[in-house]
Design a protein that fits this description.
By secondary structure, the protein is of the alpha+beta class. The chain has four helices and three strands; from the N terminus they run βααββαα.
């Protein structure tokens, strides 16, 4: 989702004047549009489905963070040892 600086940076005024055009661009390219006020980035407008994908991916990453921390702190068991202990505890 690389941003095109010639197409994806627009002013709030441009958005007000060309709302339909900007929305069509967002839906067609699947890229966000950066909205500026007085030449400075103020907000990002993006396709709802693309936002949902990014949000879901971010939530998954948040779930993985504790596991990565455990690995960094050597708080893990090898799969073979884990399953051996699991089978023993469950009497399988």
């Amino acid at each position: 989702m690389a941003i095109s600086i010639t197409q994806d940076i627009r002013s709030i005024t441009d958005l007000k004047r060309n709302t339909n055009s900007v929305l069509k661009q967002i839906h067609k390219t699947k890229r966000p549009v950066i909205l500026t006020v007085n030449g400075k980035a103020e907000a990002v407008l993006m396709d709802a489905k693309e936002y949902e994908k990014i949000s879901n991916a971010f939530n998954l990453l948040k779930l993985l963070a504790p596991a990565e921390e455990d690995i960094s702190n050597s708080k893990f068991k090898e799969a073979q040892a884990f399953f051996k202990e699991f089978k023993r505890d469950k009497k399988i």
